[in-house]
Amino acid sequence: MLHFKKSKVFLPLLTVLSLLLGMMSCQKKEGQGTENQVVEEKKDSAKVVNLYSQRHYASDDSLYKIFEERTGIKVNVVKASADELMNKMEMEGADSPADLFITADAGRLQRAKMKGLLQPLVSETLNSQVPAYLRDADNQWFALTTRARVIVFDKKKHNLDSTFNYENLADAKWKGKLLIRSSENPYNQSLMASILASSGEEAAEKWAKGVVANMAREPKGGDRDQIKAIAAGEGEIAVVNSYYLAQMLKDQDEEVRKAAEMVGVCFPNQSNRGTHINISGAGIAKNAPNLENARLLLEFLTSAEAQATYANSECEFPLIEGSDITKNHPILKDWNFKADKENLQKLGEFQEKAILLFDKVMWK
User: Is 26:19 a contact under the CB 8 Å cutoff?
Assistant: First the structure.
């Protein structure tokens, strides 16, 4: 039998091996802890939704807060103009953090779709809350609210009724009396696009020439400014969005309310295609990193609860016609009208042609 003498280095080697094994065990545990930490961080980071929005109302922020409290999902909002946000999304490309894009014009939503910035979203909840004519045929954008492009007039001098049409704005009787915003305004671009879609390019150009000839002054200011100009005697008829007039009628400033009370409101084209409407709406960003959270937020913003907030705070029409929200509203309840539901999805398609036509007739 062979016998080995104990080496002077044998015990130290065992000690070293024990230390190495211990270090490997600790490293493994530390590695597992780091991995668990990363998973937890990813889990936490997933509790967000990144919103690129053109809207700038306090009521929107209150809705985001409610959503955060109920879901635990943090709403991060980047606010800018629609064009700035679309440019930002294009520059960011596949690395864009945007989950949801919100803007105040169907034409701009359609442009975002055509640029490849949005993606389809199939949701039974959205289909039940958003009527078909208020959402993209490919489910790439959905309306949040609607507003009508109405005619307001000096009540002391005129009494326009439902027989009045947009086309009548080009009549010579309104020469030097018409007030309207600039051709750069998206609401006017979409109105022109709707006329192009319904009447054709020749009729639209003739109409635009007549409108320019009837202007009381060069286009300037916003829709509220057109209403104030009528009250100041600078014109007798103007084209504005319905919610601006409604907001002025309930404004805390008495002078603002008085100006709004001096005008009557007409919902044109009731005997044919209906009054032109536009929307504020939203679409899921093409590269949304938090797709599920974006879907949940969009479903919440189109819910009856959110719709009531939009109507009560901003005087925008809810998505469902004839709802109790409208019936119980102090102003909207009296504004019953037939809407043009056929041309909404065509606004983006005809917007570029509308801009070229504006330039052609020198609508500043």
Answer: no
What's the rounded Cα separation, in Å, for the pair 107 and 109?
A: 5
Cα–Cα distance, 38 to 355 (Å, whole number) = 51
Q: What is the mean pLDDT of residues 234-240?
A: 97
**Backbone dihedral angles phi then psi of residue 215, each to the nearest 5 degrees:** -65, 135
User: CA-CA distance, 250 to 259, in Å (whole number)?
Assistant: 11
The string of DSSP codes covering 29-77 is HHHHHHHHHHHHHHHHHTSEEEEEE----HHHHHHHHHHHHHH--EEEE
CA dihedral (309, 310, 314, 317) in degrees, to 10, reads: -130
- Give yes or no for residue 247 having a pLDDT over 60: yes
pLDDT tens string 78-102: 999 999 999 999 999 999 999 999 9
Q: What is the pLDDT of residue 346?
A: 83
Dihedral (Cα; 75, 136, 269, 312), 10-degree rounding:
-20
Contacts of residue 196, defined as CB under 8 A and 6 or more positions apart, other chains included, come to 204, 350, 353, 354, 357
What mean pLDDT is reported for the chain? 88
- Write the pLDDT tens digit of every residue in 177-194: 999 999 999 999 999 999
The pTM (predicted TM-score) of the whole model is 0.83
Contact indicator for 275, 265 with CB cutoff of 8 Å: no
Query: Are the C-beta atoms of residues 230 and 177 closer than 8 Å to each other?
Result: no
3-state helix, strand and coil shares in percent for the chain, rounded to the nearest 5: 50, 15, 35
The closest alpha carbon to 351, from 220, 198, 194, 240, belongs to 194
Name the strand (E) or helix (H) holding 265.
strand 263-266
